[in-house]
Design goal:
This protein is mainly alpha-helical and about 200 residues long. It is built from 10 helices and no strands. The longest helix has 27 residues, at about 120-145. The protein is elongated and about 60 Å long.
Length: about 200
């Protein structure tokens, strides 16, 4: 039976998935286009039709990470459950994304990704900044609607969420994926949630 011919989009996703697998195993320095092509079963020249070099692969992976995070925000924002539940859902989606893609922390925290060029440094900074702004918007809306306590700081809530997620990524990175910190991160977030949710104020008096 002849192999099914992949569309250009499907092939690009396959290349990016394979690149991320190699990053998870060897770090960003271990990525080379010959190995990517070998694992997929194509000649290197076929890979270059989609990505001209390793730098283009890194940028595409960062762009895909950006798209996943903001698609999560878009979907959760359609839910009318309230800010505290929406923030929790986003946090768990973020942790799941890291767990299912162990190469992401090694990509985002690598010198090549963050400091490879001023343009890439700006790209990573904007991804983090814009994501935190979206989280802060949800927290601010929750404060206005009475779901979160009046003196909660939307920016601090966003910072806490991203910091916990980054810590999960850091430990995953340092342990080569052998330690799963997600359950501890979820527990830590529940402490933050209890302190900012308005219906918990009476419990603290």
């Amino acid at each position: 039976m002849p192999r099914k011919r992949l569309t250009s989009k499907m092939r690009q996703e396959q290349i990016l998935d394979t690149t991320l697998e190699i990053i998870a195993e060897k770090g960003l320095a271990g990525v080379n286009t010959s190995e990517i092509a070998h694992r997929i079963g194509i000649v290197p020249s076929a890979l270059y039709r989609h990505f001209e070099n390793k730098e283009a692969l890194i940028d595409a992976l960062l762009d895909r990470t950006h798209n996943v995070l903001f698609e999560n925000v878009r979907k959760i924002s359609l839910d009318s459950s309230g800010a505290s539940k929406n923030l929790r859902s986003l946090f768990l989606l973020h942790i799941e994304f890291i767990r299912n893609n162990p190469g992401i922390p090694k990509l985002v925290f690598s010198d090549a990704a963050v400091f490879g060029s001023p343009e890439r440094k700006e790209k990573v900074f904007l991804i983090v900044k814009n994501y935190m702004n979206k989280l802060a918007e949800i927290a601010e809306k929750g404060r206005r609607e009475g779901d979160l306590i009046d003196d909660s700081s939307p920016e601090a809530v966003a910072f806490s969420m991203v910091s916990f997620a980054q810590h999960v990524g850091l430990i995953s990175n340092l342990s080569d994926g052998k330690i799963d910190m997600s359950k501890y991160a979820e527990l830590a977030w529940s402490y933050i949630e209890r302190s900012i949710r308005k219906d918990n104020e009476s419990d603290k008096k």
